[in-house]
Design a protein that fits this description.
5% helix; globular; 27 strands; six-stranded mixed sheet
Length: 355
């Protein structure tokens, strides 16, 4: 039993290490010039959803917080345009997981399905951490039946599984045989297209995507035996198109651009119309994880505070850092802190609701 517990703790520690890969030090603009800007909050007209303990919503720009659900969740997306969030709820005792939808305002909860399985990769049926709920259409995308691959990266592992798409309104599944890396899924507006991350041999990557960027973007990834590539899936005919080297894709609210990160946390903005990309700087934060791209240049992101770090003690992981949750205008010095200290294990999501 002792050996099993040690192995489990090691797996969790590595998983947390993967989570904090994001905007690395040096990509942010000079901290001397950064400034908190209250005006940025006025550009947010939706809800930030945060889980654990419980599941709560922060309404913006008012910053009013309300508890939606007593318990936390294991994957999270939304809210969509109708004010619903989709999530996965696990029962470790029964070894089952359920896909559910809940209304942010009424708190009415609906179950879409319950299946055997859990988050853990050793289970025959499982799901990964990548999860996305379309703004319209009630479509949920997640990674199913993933296995940890220790050969892709030199000093870490990543999950590789299959893409599953579920219509939460009709309660049916759109079948795919697409293998995906558990490093991000995101819907385009309208729910007709989806971006995911494929991993493929170098000779299968589009020749024009394998280039050397002036900021060094993707240079480490291009030395691996297989390359992570952001791919767009068109649900109309299930056709796919390779877009860019990298992972953690986040589609802009208008669908014109996609933010993509590399192994070292560098960020580039990919323009859908031209296929070109450009480097992006985030105002402040030692590391970051972008989870929403609003308008042309406004992002929501989690970051490890660059000064006055706060720590807490847990029984399984020891001392772990908090995130700070911020909104920022990219390539400027403007940002605004929304949540100062956010447990690193909490999941977050953002969406705008049509009133």
């Amino acid at each position: 039993m002792i050996n099993v517990n040690k192995k489990l703790i090691n797996i969790i520690i590595v998983f947390v290490g993967v989570l904090v890969i994001g905007c690395v030090s040096g990509l942010s603009s000079s901290s001397e010039n950064n400034q908190e800007s209250d005006d940025l909050l006025l550009q947010l007209k939706g809800y930030i959803i945060i889980d654990r303990p419980g599941t709560s919503a922060i309404e913006l720009p008012s910053n009013k917080q309300v508890v939606i659900r007593k318990y936390g969740v294991d994957a999270l997306g939304g809210p969509d345009s109708q004010g619903r969030i989709a999530f996965i709820d696990s029962d470790l005792g029964a070894k089952t997981y359920s896909l559910k939808v809940i209304d942010v305002v009424t708190k009415k909860e609906t179950e879409v399905f319950t299946r055997q399985g859990s988050y853990w990769p050793h289970e025959k049926e499982n799901y990964g951490k990548s999860f996305s709920f379309s703004q319209d259409g009630g479509l949920v995308a997640f990674v199913k039946n993933y296995k940890n691959d220790f050969s892709l990266m030199p000093d870490d592992y990543v999950g590789i599984g299959h893409l599953e798409i579920v219509n939460a309104e009709k309660r049916n599944t759109i079948k795919t045989d697409i293998q995906v890396l558990d490093k991000g899924l995101n819907w385009f507006p309208g729910g007709k297209k989806l971006v995911y991350v494929a991993v493929m041999p170098r000779d299968k990557v589009r020749h024009d995507l394998v280039e050397k960027f002036e900021d060094g973007f993707g240079s480490e990834m291009m030395t691996w035996h297989s390359t992570p590539v952001v791919v767009m899936l068109n649900l109309k005919d299930m056709s796919t198109k390779q877009l860019h080297i990298g992972w953690n894709p986040i589609v802009s609210k208008d669908g014109s651009s996609i933010l993509i990160q590399d192994y070292k946390g560098r960020i580039r903005m990919y323009k859908v119309s031209s296929g070109n990309s450009m480097p992006v700087n985030v105002p402040i934060g030692e590391q970051c994880h972008v989870f929403s791209f609003i308008g042309k240049d406004i992002i929501l992101y989690k970051t490890i505070p660059d000064t006055d770090r706060k720590y807490r003690l847990t029984s399984t992981l020891g001392t772990t850092p908090y995130w700070t949750l911020r909104v920022a205008q990219i390539n400027t010095s403007k940002y605004k802190t929304i949540v100062q200290h956010l447990d690193i294990h909490r999941r977050v999501s953002y969406g705008e609701v049509r009133k």
